[in-house]
Each structure stands twice: as C-alpha cells, then as structure tokens.
C-alpha cells in the first residue's frame, strides 16, 4: 500500500513540475532565439517564477461559461484534455523501477490514452457555442485523423523490432544501431507527435489570425490554464516517449543506477527541439498539413514498418 501511495505521489509531482519546467524553458529559450529578454522580474533571478505568477493570475480570473454553451460539456472539456497525459506519464519508465505502473502492454496503453486527450479540444470547440471555436474543433478532428496513423505506425515499428509492447523490454532490446535502423520512424513519430499536440508549425486549429484561439476561444481562468498545462504536459509525454522508444531511455555510460540522469537529459533535449521547431518554422496551411501527412509521413511509416519486419525475420 505504501509503495502504491509513493508511486501515485511521484507521478503527481512529476506531472505538476515537469510541464512547468518545460513552460519556463520555452519562455526563456524562445526569448534568446529571438534576441529578446523574455520574462525577467517575477521571482528575481531571470524571472524564474513567471509561470507561478501566471498561475496566480489565472486563479484570480473569473471562469465564464457562455450563455449559448453546452454547460456540462464545456466545463468537462479541460479535464478530458489534461487527464490522459497524467495517465500516460504514469506508464513511461524513467529508469528500472522508477515508473508509476510498469505495464506489459505499456506502449498500447499510452498510445490509447493519448488519443483520448484530443477529445477535450473537440468537446471545447463543439460546446462553446461559437462558430470560430467550432471551426477550430473541426480542424482538430481533421488533423487528428491525418496524423494519428503515422504516429501509431512508427511506434509499432519499434515494438516489432523489440518484440514487445513493454517499455522496459523495448529499452532492454535497444542498441545504438537503432539510431540508424529506426531513424525514419523517429522523424515520423516526432513530427506526427507535434501535430497531435497542435504545436507550431501544426497549430492550424488555434491560428489566432484566423479563428481567434480555436476551440479555446471562450475559455478563461483556470479552465484555460488547464488547456495550457495539457499542452506542456503533452510535450513532456512526447519527449519521454521519443526517449524510451528511439533513444534508448536510460541507456548510457555508467551503471543503471544513474540511468535516470540520462533519461531526463534526453527528455530535456527533445523538449528543447520541440521549442526550437516552434521558433524556426512558419505555420503550415491546411492543404500543406494534409499533404505532409498522407503523401509524406504515412508512406515513410509504412515502409519503415515493412523494413523492420523484414529485418527481424532475416537477422533475428
């Protein structure tokens, strides 16, 4: 019982702390990339408490429900958006034994719950009673349908190579050769993951110049903050998945007892790449977004899966 409580508390702490660290890093890293200061005053040293200040601001704001909204669906949408990422984070190991729940079918579980999180955006767009929110929700649906397939196919390639759906088993089977063998799958997985999170340059559903703020237009206060927290939590989950599936998880020089350091370092690097992509690339048009998915990522993911299957049969 005590071990269960410790694992739950550990997952909650990681879920609350890691997205805030990524959010603060995005503030400062984007500022340096764009040759500006960024937040500098909250908390004193380089504005380290800016996200805490933002949280206090959101708490003080009123959470308004539009008169034309479907009240129950509108209020539950932020919860549906954020909880799946907590469940996903609980199943991703950082090191041997450092995991909320070590599942035999961990990859299947995480991919399943991550697909649920997008329903929060769909619910928000449909229930807001706002035509711009509805348009943003429909864009979320179209984007999800396009990028879910390459996302799953590239992850399936790793499962085929390792011969297991267990994250621990995948890391144990990983070797540096995978950096070449599974490189196309890594690229597809990362790009599709950005699209799943609606991160730039795949932020068409929340294009502020066209649909105000997409499905989140009518949200204020803590409900809006929950959508932002879900985005940063999604970055952490995507970085952790990329690390475990393609980068060897806690594999690195030295004993497994320091493996968690390597895992966290890899997660931090992948998160920085996510931030860099936001700064470096302009938003894709709707037709470009769909073309990239169906004519680019899906064929590459299918070829990668076929080659992985052939490689397993021939060499293993």
Automatic annotation (TrEMBL):
<dbReference type="Pfam" id="PF00146">
    <property type="entry name" value="NADHdh"/>
</dbReference>
<feature type="transmembrane region" description="Helical">
    <location>
        <begin position="149"/>
        <end position="171"/>
    </location>
</feature>
<protein>
    <recommendedName>
        <fullName>NADH-quinone oxidoreductase subunit H</fullName>
        <ecNumber>7.1.1.-</ecNumber>
    </recommendedName>
</protein>
<keyword id="KW-1133">Transmembrane helix</keyword>
<feature type="transmembrane region" description="Helical">
    <location>
        <begin position="260"/>
        <end position="281"/>
    </location>
</feature>
<feature type="transmembrane region" description="Helical">
    <location>
        <begin position="177"/>
        <end position="195"/>
    </location>
</feature>
<dbReference type="InterPro" id="IPR001694">
    <property type="entry name" value="NADH_UbQ_OxRdtase_su1/FPO"/>
</dbReference>
<feature type="transmembrane region" description="Helical">
    <location>
        <begin position="293"/>
        <end position="315"/>
    </location>
</feature>
<feature type="transmembrane region" description="Helical">
    <location>
        <begin position="79"/>
        <end position="99"/>
    </location>
</feature>
<comment type="subunit">
    <text>NDH-1 is composed of 14 different subunits. Subunits NuoA, H, J, K, L, M, N constitute the membrane sector of the complex.</text>
</comment>
<keyword id="KW-0812">Transmembrane</keyword>
<keyword id="KW-1003">Cell membrane</keyword>
<keyword id="KW-1278">Translocase</keyword>
<feature type="transmembrane region" description="Helical">
    <location>
        <begin position="6"/>
        <end position="25"/>
    </location>
</feature>
<keyword id="KW-0874">Quinone</keyword>
<feature type="transmembrane region" description="Helical">
    <location>
        <begin position="105"/>
        <end position="128"/>
    </location>
</feature>
<keyword id="KW-0520">NAD</keyword>
<comment type="similarity">
    <text>Belongs to the complex I subunit 1 family.</text>
</comment>
<feature type="transmembrane region" description="Helical">
    <location>
        <begin position="224"/>
        <end position="248"/>
    </location>
</feature>
<comment type="function">
    <text>NDH-1 shuttles electrons from NADH, via FMN and iron-sulfur (Fe-S) centers, to quinones in the respiratory chain. The immediate electron acceptor for the enzyme in this species is believed to be ubiquinone. Couples the redox reaction to proton translocation (for every two electrons transferred, four hydrogen ions are translocated across the cytoplasmic membrane), and thus conserves the redox energy in a proton gradient. This subunit may bind ubiquinone.</text>
</comment>
<keyword id="KW-0830">Ubiquinone</keyword>
<keyword id="KW-0472">Membrane</keyword>
């Amino acid at each position: 019982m005590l071990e269960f409580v410790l694992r739950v508390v550990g997952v909650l702490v990681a879920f609350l702390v890691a997205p805030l660290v990524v959010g603060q890093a995005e503030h400062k890293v984007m500022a340096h990339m764009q040759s500006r200061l960024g937040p500098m005053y909250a908390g004193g040293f380089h504005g380290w408490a800016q996200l805490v200040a933002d949280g206090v601001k959101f708490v003080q704001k009123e959470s308004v429900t539009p008169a034309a909204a479907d009240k129950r669906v509108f209020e539950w949408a932020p919860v549906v958006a954020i909880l799946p990422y907590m469940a996903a984070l609980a199943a991703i190991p950082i090191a041997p034994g450092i995991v909320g729940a070590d599942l035999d079918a961990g990859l299947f579980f995480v991919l399943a719950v991550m697909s649920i999180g997008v329903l929060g955006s769909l619910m928000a767009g449909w229930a807001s009673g706002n035509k711009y929110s509805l348009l943003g929700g429909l864009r979320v649906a179209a984007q999800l349908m396009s990028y879910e397939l390459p996302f799953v196919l590239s992850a399936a390639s790793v499962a085929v190579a390792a011969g297991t759906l267990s994250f621990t088993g995948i890391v144990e089977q990983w070797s540096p050769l995978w950096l070449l063998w599974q490189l196309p799958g890594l690229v597809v997985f990362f790009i599709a993951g950005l699209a799943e999170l609606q991160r730039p340059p795949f932020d068409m559903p929340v294009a502020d110049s066209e649909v105000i703020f997409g499905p989140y237009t009518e949200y204020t206060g803590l409900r809006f903050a929950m959508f932002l927290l879900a985005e940063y939590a999604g970055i952490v989950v995507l970085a952790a998945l990329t690390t475990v599936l393609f980068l060897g998880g806690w594999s690195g020089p030295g004993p497994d007892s320091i493996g968690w350091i390597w895992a966290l370092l890899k997660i931090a690097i992948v998160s920085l790449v996510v931030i860099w992509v936001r700064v470096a690339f302009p938003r894709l048009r709707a037709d470009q977004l769909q073309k990239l998915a169906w004519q680019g990522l899906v064929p590459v993911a299918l070829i990668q899966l076929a080659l992985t299957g052939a490689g397993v049969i021939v060499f293993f």
